[in-house]
Amino acid sequence: MITLKNISKWYGRFQVLKDCTTQVEKGEVVVVCGPSGSGKSTLIKTVNGLEPVQKGKIFIGDTEITSNSTNLARLRSRVGMVFQHFELFPHLTILKNLTLAQIKVLGRSDDEAKEKALSLLERVGLSAHANKLPGQLSGGQQQRVAIARALCMDPVVMLFDEPTSALDPEMVNEVLDVMVELAYEGMTMMVVTHEMGFARKVANRVIFMDKGEIIEDTSKEQFFSDPQTDRAKDFLAKIIH
Amino acid sequence: MQLLEWIANIPTLINHHNELLLMGLWLTVKITFTAVVVGIIWGTVLALMRLSNIKLLNIFARGYVNLFRSIPLLLVLLWFYLALPQAIKYLFQLPPYADVRIASAMIAFALFEAAYYSEIIRAGINAVSKGQYHAAFALGMTKGQTMRLIILPQAFRAMIPLLLTQGIILFQDTSLVYVMSLIDLFGASVTQIGMAQGGTAKYSMIIFAAISYFVICFSASRLVNYLKKD
Residue B165's Cα: distance from chain center in Å? Predict the structure, then answer.
């Protein structure tokens, strides 16, 4: 579903991604972890072209993201993304947040978009808030809305960029629960997170990054029981108390 | 004590000429309103040019803003008074005796203010976080849709107080249209009534003009402060 081939990226002279290669199969849940500044957020943003790369190739299905002839906007409409800081549109109601792209990008009718939006709000347990503004909701609720907004577009894959890092601890689980449910339904997911509980529960594979490099890319079982590198061992020791 | 006498004369003077004063005020309001509306629209276009990746548009917008911000408004008005009427008459094929001074004044103010508005709007656009662009792009929106539906509405909401404040400054600046021998609120009170009446009438009317501008601008800025609080 997603293929990254030897991608490298520089900010000026600083190399943030070094020759990263990996893939995510259809229906797979892949967790990307690593210390902060290791390039994991940058890596996931290259997948839908939000961060351009200078070297390497990226495919979603058969479509090459890194090719100039690709209609990036159209491709992105089928790749859901959830951000660390939610990024709901603060000037629009929850319902409008969910229907806007359906109408403007997918060309759905107002009624069709609204029906879809309401059914997804129901699913994340927030139907009662449809007419509120994002600022009136808690962080956890906003992130659930953001997930629903991405799902409205019927994505073939979902990308999560540290979806729980900006949340108060008591709100982390309500968001993780939605994600776990999504994973069980067979959604293809790439998730940057420090939530190792989530990884243990639903991940098929774990990618461990450090200093812009993918240094482990193994099954969840192997990663947690027998990490191959000292850096991964060190990371796991710190993060699991 | 003379000051009190001047003030005491104000009511009689305005009562006798209220029609002229209202016409002056109406012209001031008309020019301000057009300049604000056209200035904001053209200013937005300039701001987008300035932020675009197309180099030519970039250079044009930068040059435009720097030019208008480096020339005194009075000079711009004079220039437009001398040159623009001919151009307008030629463009719209009006007879030579047609009076296009008001249109010239409106255009001059709008073009001048657009330079200031574009800087305010550019700052407003830049203040919207990068994450909002990412969110819109990730949903498949094009750059144009992102700007129109997501970024500009947020930028404008944050900028309303600044845009209105700029409008208040503009309201005062319109008094400069006297160089085009147009009769606005200032021209009506000071030149048309004060000077024409002779004697101490000019002192009374200068005081009256000052009070009028103060009352209008002060109330408007109270309104802006009130809007800021929400």
Answer: 10
The helices-and-strands tally (H runs, E runs) of chain B is 11, 0
DSSP state of A167: S
Inter-chain residue contact B135 with A89, CB threshold 8 Å = yes
Chosen from A70, A87, A96, A99 to mutate, greatest number of chain B CBs within 10 A: A87
Chain A residues in contact with B139 (beta carbon < 8 A): 76-77, 100-101, 105, 149-150, 153
Do residues A227 and A217 lie in contact, with contact meaning Cβ atoms separated by under 8 Å? Answer: no
Q: Quick check: A190 contacting B, CB < 8 Å? A: no
Task: Name the pairing type of β-strands A205-210 and A29-33.
Answer: parallel
Q: Which of A50, A104, A149 has its CB closest to that of B137?
A: A50
Measured distance CA(B227)–CA(A24) in Å, rounded? 51
| Helix and strand counts by DSSP (H, E) for chain A | 9, 10
pTM of the shown model: 0.86
Is there a contact between A8 and A177 (Cβ–Cβ < 8 Å)? no
B183, pLDDT greater than 90: no
In tens, the pLDDT along B153-173 reads 999 988 988 999 999 999 999
Q: Is A19 left (phi over 0), alpha (psi -120 to 50) or beta?
A: left
Q: How far is A78 from chain B (nearest CA, A)?
A: 8
Q: Which residues contact B91 (CB under 8 A, 6 or more apart)?
A: none
Q: If we measure between CA atoms, which residue out of A236, A214, A222 comes closest to residue A23?
A: A214
**Chain A residue closest in CA terms to B149:** A100
Task: Give the pLDDT confidence of A133-146 residue by residue, as tens digits.
Answer: 999 999 999 999 99
- According to CATH, the topology of domain B2-229 is MetI-like fold (1.10.3720)
Query: How far from B152 is each of B4, B51, B83, CA to CA, in Å?
Result: 52, 13, 35
Residue A128 has a CB neighbour count (10 Å cut-off) of 10
A204 vs A217: CA distance, rounded Å: 11
Of A50, A74, A100, nearest to B138 by CB-CB distance is A50
Buried b (16+ CB within 10 A) or exposed e, B160-193: ebbbbbbbbebbebbebbeebebbbbbbbbbbbb
Q: Does A76 touch chain B (CB under 8 A)?
A: yes
Give pLDDT, residue A241.
59
| Burial class of residue A198 in the structure, from the number of CB atoms within 10 Å of its CB (0-12 exposed, 13-18 middle, 19+ buried) | buried
Residue B38, pLDDT above cutoff 90? yes
Beta-bridge partner residues of B99: none
